[in-house]
Amino acid sequence: MNATRIVRADRIVTGQSAWTPGWIAISDGRILDCGEGEPPGERSDLDAEHVTGTVIPGFVDIHAHGAGGFDFGSADEDSARRIAGFHATRGTTSLVASLASAPLDSLEQSIRTLRPLVENGTLAGIHLEGPYLSPQRRGAHDQAMLRSPSMGEIARLVGAGAGAVRMVTIAPELAGAEATVRWLVSNGVTVALGHTDCDAETAREAFGWGASVVTHLFNGMRPLHHRAPGLVGVALVDDRVTIELILDGHHVGAEAAEVARRSAPNRLALVSDAMSATGCGDGDFEIGGSAVRVTGGVAMLADGTSLAGSTTTLADGFDRVLSFPGMTVSEAVRLTSTAASRAIALGQSGIQPGASANLVVLDVASEDESGLSARVSRVMRGGSWLG
């Protein structure tokens, strides 16, 4: 057993509390105890490391396809580890690997490749974003790969993961969707609705089947209309639903993001939707076998018909959301950690006893009326500082 050590910080923001100063006791990579002020008597004699800045929980990203030139869909175990490492050094200590639509055999092979990394904690799970998506709202997904859900296929894919598949995105209007959603939920897999042309009635029904997440709200679905609210409208008012939002400055306008924030407090989870070009310069890349061109940091299909993921990390989204009117660091923590952890049932997470010691140290600078800005200065994952 490792010796217990104390991390003391100028400020600790958990998402529920803000302590100035605060402390965290860590042993064997997990948080034993934490609190405001100075450590209590039984902890005060331990060696303490002082951290300058604001400590928050590590970011939790439940939707990312790649980074550093690598895509989870084509990655071997080493390159998948590199993707996770890239995101971790930028504060994402819990990362779900998203797989774009692909042939069944390819998806199964990717799941088997990634499964050991889920089992050893490098990844927080696997997300199948397809192939059970609507051709009308496919975005960057290859139309030739799309299909209606099959119980036999989904059982095969989930079985290949042996518990590693944590979430599956499905268009609920497709034939066979209800039975598939119900089976997945009954087997402990979170179901997200996305890349769908469904109407509001179908969305309501699907949430009744057990679906509980919306894949990147506003993108890959009918737009909100006052007489036909669609999935967007239903998700914004259904308190059971966690809503993903890509906040990279391109996928969603500021006002639309603010509508989601005000409509779904504590249910909004920022995601990166990062693709292989993340951490690279402009150039030509792929996602799910589709050619992508990145110009000025914006990833588009090579034919210019659709955005193709983002080239940002969750740290970028965290910094961007701090500029929203009235935003606090506590709310930003809930957007980048708490809601996502709850959505895929990660268990104890954040800054609390029993949780893994995943921490981000921020240099937070107050600016003018435009809000705050934050820079990730240090990252702890599983009780060890990275870098």
Automatic annotation (TrEMBL):
<feature type="domain" description="Amidohydrolase-related">
    <location>
        <begin position="54"/>
        <end position="383"/>
    </location>
</feature>
<feature type="binding site">
    <location>
        <position position="129"/>
    </location>
    <ligand>
        <name>Zn(2+)</name>
    </ligand>
</feature>
<dbReference type="InterPro" id="IPR032466">
    <property type="entry name" value="Metal_Hydrolase"/>
</dbReference>
<comment type="similarity">
    <text>Belongs to the metallo-dependent hydrolases superfamily. NagA family.</text>
</comment>
<keyword id="KW-0479">Metal-binding</keyword>
<keyword id="KW-0119">Carbohydrate metabolism</keyword>
<feature type="active site" description="Proton donor/acceptor">
    <location>
        <position position="273"/>
    </location>
</feature>
<feature type="binding site">
    <location>
        <position position="227"/>
    </location>
    <ligand>
        <name>substrate</name>
    </ligand>
</feature>
<feature type="binding site">
    <location>
        <position position="251"/>
    </location>
    <ligand>
        <name>substrate</name>
    </ligand>
</feature>
<protein>
    <submittedName>
        <fullName>N-acetylglucosamine-6-phosphate deacetylase</fullName>
        <ecNumber>3.5.1.25</ecNumber>
    </submittedName>
</protein>
<dbReference type="InterPro" id="IPR011059">
    <property type="entry name" value="Metal-dep_hydrolase_composite"/>
</dbReference>
<keyword id="KW-0378">Hydrolase</keyword>
<dbReference type="InterPro" id="IPR006680">
    <property type="entry name" value="Amidohydro-rel"/>
</dbReference>
<feature type="binding site">
    <location>
        <position position="140"/>
    </location>
    <ligand>
        <name>substrate</name>
    </ligand>
</feature>
<dbReference type="InterPro" id="IPR003764">
    <property type="entry name" value="GlcNAc_6-P_deAcase"/>
</dbReference>
<feature type="binding site">
    <location>
        <begin position="307"/>
        <end position="309"/>
    </location>
    <ligand>
        <name>substrate</name>
    </ligand>
</feature>
<dbReference type="GO" id="GO:0008448">
    <property type="term" value="F:N-acetylglucosamine-6-phosphate deacetylase activity"/>
</dbReference>
<dbReference type="GO" id="GO:0006046">
    <property type="term" value="P:N-acetylglucosamine catabolic process"/>
</dbReference>
<feature type="binding site">
    <location>
        <position position="195"/>
    </location>
    <ligand>
        <name>Zn(2+)</name>
    </ligand>
</feature>
<feature type="binding site">
    <location>
        <position position="216"/>
    </location>
    <ligand>
        <name>Zn(2+)</name>
    </ligand>
</feature>
<dbReference type="Pfam" id="PF01979">
    <property type="entry name" value="Amidohydro_1"/>
</dbReference>
<feature type="binding site">
    <location>
        <begin position="219"/>
        <end position="220"/>
    </location>
    <ligand>
        <name>substrate</name>
    </ligand>
</feature>
<dbReference type="GO" id="GO:0046872">
    <property type="term" value="F:metal ion binding"/>
</dbReference>
